[in-house]
Amino acid sequence: MPKLIDHAQRRIEIAEALWRVVSRDGVAAASVRDVAAEAGISAGSLRHVFATKEELLAFSMELIYERVAARVRTHATKRDPLRRAEAVLAEVLPLDDNRRIEMHVNLALVTEAAAHPALARAGVQAHEGLRELCRGVLADLADHGLVAASRDLDAESMHLHALVDGLAVHLLLGHNDRPTRVRRLIVDHLASLR
Amino acid sequence: MPKLIDHAQRRIEIAEALWRVVSRDGVAAASVRDVAAEAGISAGSLRHVFATKEELLAFSMELIYERVAARVRTHATKRDPLRRAEAVLAEVLPLDDNRRIEMHVNLALVTEAAAHPALARAGVQAHEGLRELCRGVLADLADHGLVAASRDLDAESMHLHALVDGLAVHLLLGHNDRPTRVRRLIVDHLASLR
Predict the structure, then answer these.
(1) How many CA atoms lie within 13 A of A150 on its CB side?
(2) One domain for residues B96 and B130
(3) What one-character-per-residue DSSP string does A4-35 give?
(4) Which residue of chain B comes nearest to A162, CA vs CA?
(5) Which end of chain A is less enclosed by CB atoms within 10 A, N or C?
(6) Exposed e or buried b for every residue in B15-52, given b needs 16+ CB within 10 A?
(7) Does B60 touch chain A (CB under 8 A)?
(8) Is a pLDDT exceeding 60 seen at residue B17?
């Protein structure tokens, strides 16, 4: 394997190890030493790849957003506008183990951002990215005549974004909202915009 | 001061010191030693009041919920049903420094709950408490003829709860939604239920 690819792969493996540690033990437990052990390398090797813990945390966050964006793109070919909207929004909900770990780690890291400027920057970018995603979903529905002309798309994007993020946090932490009900609620909300 | 009151007051002072540490440095930095230093006592004195860190974290969370509940009760006397609803919901939004610290600490602790069963329990109780609050707000509006009979109050409670929590997280972390717009959005949503 060429050295550059090897290095990129190593960064991803370490970020995934961080996800597992944060997901299992909380962000307070995610020391460089613990993450290195989880990744099966020495703390020295980890520091060779990520010079600071902040760099590791920021990369781990950004990797989550890249993966979500890649999954979202796979739905562009869906024909039915409402199904396309629903499928895109489902990618940012913790509906399986994979998305649950992403969500949990993201929430933990965003919450730590007060103490880490690089995390704060990545968190704001993700926030703005998700707002744009919601705006794009609504614009797509509007293009297909599925949003009443009287609706303010800015306010509706803000509403949809908050709704989706709130439902995501509830699925993750609330333990009492079933995924089918959550998806139903989003579909009903989108349908109500007509 | 009687000894019991003194003890209760001490617990509150330590919990508030934990809030400041978490709010400023993140939950990862909130060691018993740091919280004790912030409270101006020794780590040994802190351990005399809270035998474990988990006990301290859980009490600190519960204290947030008690304060929110006390503020919510003050709005019961408001005459106008929509204004009453809005005032109650504003109590769980980070609209000033006080509520911002509560929200931030709560989110940080809830996010750490995977590793701390006592926090998970307190987090679930808070989640259910806020769902009940939303249901109560909607039932109050419905009693005043402000919710269409065709609306499913269960689904609407879930929607309002997610909306409010999502907006709260965005106000806290998003840096781009103005409080006036957030309040307007909630009022518009409540008004749309008619």
Answers:
(1) 3
(2) yes
(3) HHHHHHHHHHHHHHHHHHHHHH-GGG--HHHH
(4) B166
(5) N
(6) bbbbbebbbeebbbebebebbbebbebeeeebeebbee
(7) no
(8) yes
What is the extent of the structural domain holding A149? 62-192
Q: Kindly state whether residue A56 falls inside one of the protein's structural domains.
A: no
Total domain count for chain A?
A: 2
Q: Are residues B66 and B105 in the same domain?
A: yes
**A52 DSSP assignment:** S
Residue of chain A whose alpha carbon sits nearest to that of B193: A192
CB-CB neighbors (< 8 A) of A188 in chain B: 155
A73 and A168 fall within a common domain: yes
Instruction: Count other Cβ atoms within 10 Å, centred on residue A193.
Output: 16
Within this chain, do residues A101 and A169 fall inside the same structural domain, yes or no? Answer: yes
| Residue B169 contacts A, CB cutoff 8 Å | yes
A36 & A97 share domain: no
CB of A70 less than 8 A from some CB of B: no
CA separation for the pair B43, B32 (Å, rounded): 6
- Residue B106: what pLDDT? 86
Residues B23 and B117 in one domain: no
B25 and B88 in one domain? no
Interface predicted TM-score (ipTM) of this complex, two decimals = 0.85
Regarding whether A21 and A2 lie in a shared domain, the answer is: yes
- CA–CA dist B35, B46 (Å, integer): 8
Mark which of A51, A70, A89 sits at the end of a domain.
A51
Chain B residue numbers touching A167 (CB-CB < 8 A): 162, 166
Any idea what the CATH number is for the domain that residue B23 is in?
Answer: 1.10.10.60
Please list every residue in chain B whose beta carbon sits closer than 8 Å to the beta carbon of residue A115: 24-26, 28-29
Write out pLDDT tens, residues A29-88: 788 999 999 999 999 999 999 999 889 999 999 999 999 999 999 998 999 999 999 999
Q: What are B19-71's pLDDT values in tens digits? A: 999 888 888 778 899 999 999 999 999 999 999 988 999 999 999 999 999 99
Report how far apart, in Å, the C-alpha atoms of B84 and of each of B8, B55, B123, B141 are.
32, 35, 26, 9
The per-residue pLDDT for B175 is: 67
CA B111 vs CA A148, A185, B7, B54: distances in Å: 38, 24, 29, 14
Residues in chain A with CB shorter than 8 Å from the CB of B113 are: 173
pLDDT band at B4; cut points 50, 70, 90: low
